[in-house]
Specification:
This protein is an alpha/beta fold. The protein is about 25% helix and about 35% strand. The protein has a 10-stranded mixed sheet. Strands 22, 23, 26, 27, 30, 32, 34, 35 and 36 form a 9-stranded mixed sheet that branches. An 8-stranded parallel beta barrel has the order 2-3-4-5-6-8-9-10, surrounded by 5 helices. The structure holds pyridoxal-5'-phosphate (PLP). Pyridoxal-5'-phosphate binds next to helix 9 and strand 10.
Amino acid sequence: MLNTIIKERSWVEVDLSAFRDNLNFLKKRMQAQQSFLMIVKADAYGHGASEISRVAIEAGAVYLGVANPEEGKLLRIQSCHAPILVLSPSLPNEIPTIINNSLTPSVSDLAFASALSKAAVKLDKLVNIHLKVDTGMHRSGVFESDFMALYTAVAKLPKLVIEGVFSHFASSESDPPFCNEQEDSFNKLIRELPEAPKYIHIDNSNAVLNGLGASSNLVRLGILAYGVNTSLQSLPLQPVMTFKASLSQVKQMKKGDTIGYNRAWTAPKDGKYGIIPIGYADGYDYLLSNCGVVLINSGSKSNPKETQQHLCKVIGRISMDMITVDLSDVPSVAIGDVVTLLGDTEPQLRAENLVANYGGNPYELLCQIGRRAKRHYYSGAKLQHSSPLSRRDFVPDDFNDSKLNHIIESAISQRLQSVEIGELIYREILRSFFYNKDRDIHYRYNFHHEIAFTESLYSGYFAAHTTLYFDKILQNDYFIVACAASDEVLQRYIKRSDVEYRWLMDDAFKLDSESFVVSSVMLDNLVLKTEIQHSKDCLEIRCSHPKLKQLVGKMAHFTINTQTVYPKNSHQLSVFITELTRGVYISFRYPPEMSKVECVPVFSGQDKFPSISQQAGIIEVGSKPEEWIFPISGIVFSY
Ligand SMILES: *Cc1c(COP(=O)(O)O)cnc(C)c1O
């Protein structure tokens, strides 16, 4: 049971520990050769696809399953790199989304496969596909009789890789003879293939439980992993989702009073009833009218241990935004008491039992419930993360500082060792950059910084040549390249937004227009004019061109070349990333006399560990081209 501290109008608690336990239980039921694909379609059955995917992958999932390419794309935006299968058939206009996001489509007809192959050839990308065969479900998939022809034709299409073949049971929980027929047909088709694909799969969660599809090597886990027992057996599964709300009003009723729309319920005796501020618009099904049941946690506010739990009946019709419950038998009940509507350990509130009251479907209930609620993710009793209300538009308050603080706190408590926390920080910082502070925040991309040290005429110093180029929206009709003689002055330049490049001059060296030379500055193909302003502790080079006025606000390619010096006895060179940057490449060339050069990247962002390659005389450090790197990142080269 989770420690509830949240009291919103309504909210969803997602218990990631319960999810892990359920997965462990199901993994024990899998065959030795089987791995699993986690089904995260429909936002992971309403639990949050991003969070569920992360935990599933940690628990060993080798694949994720979504309903359509958009769901897959969203996961990619949320930094999910795992293979993703699109379960239902895709449409031709979704092909670009599939290829650009490296999704694996299900394929059941040749026309789609041909269009996919053409697009893949054009983009020069290999696309993994899974062929779907209909062995009796009679929904999507190619008929068994047409399967071999499809397989043969698709195998010939360029740039497509048949990575998997799969089918789906029509009633894996309850109809063993039909399941066996489907499985036999499937196995027969697989045996006829000239070459076994990497993944062969037919099982959903109940099929795993019932030992079906034992010769396949991948299973697709869904409902049972979410702790909803749709099987006919009793199982040690725990609900992952709990939906709660705060009691918002308590009223008296007299014998004979009717409650709500159409006067659908009449009080049999005097008593009291309560209003809970959720209705069918929150996904609490209309069919629960007069037959739902909720759990009221009432009692001592000061001592939660004295809290009592009472099951109460839903009385009257479910409204769009409210329901009414009978509180006559609850002795001390008050506004603000926590009401559990779904999930938790109370058997009557488990999705599979609640839907039995109205002949509903537990999958549907999970997908729809809590639509207007925030989700709070717990691991054990500890709150890990909260996700904002899903709205069609962005509301800055959704990403407030306290949320960021919470994440930073938990990151520190885990000493940044966990990839998951790193990802969270990355996503939250990115969000607050883009949404909270300034939607038009400028960033650099394709950032290249090449530094080369060679022997110089000055004893005790290397000559340093730097080449910098990147793309960025031009903000003014000029920009500054600065060379500072002290850390303090450098800091001042870091704060200025019109400075595109800074260098720190060794304080023992005379700073003048010969010791720091901007050899060329270009914007796109324009060679810029440079004007030098020299003061005691800095050298400012103003770069401009009459044509820049027209380019302000447009994306431009900046190139800056400099020649300067660097003290030999410093033994280290730091390169800072001072702006939000997408895609970083930094290289350091050094003369043979410098032995034992090492580099330590200090990257904050999506990936804290960029790739580093070192050959004689050069170290190169690079992020993936699409990766975001935050300011206050950098690299230290030591020699
Ligand atoms: C949704 C889905 C599953 C998961 O089924 P559960 O019953 O939730 O385990 C498996 N396979 C396919 C193709 C699906 O669409």
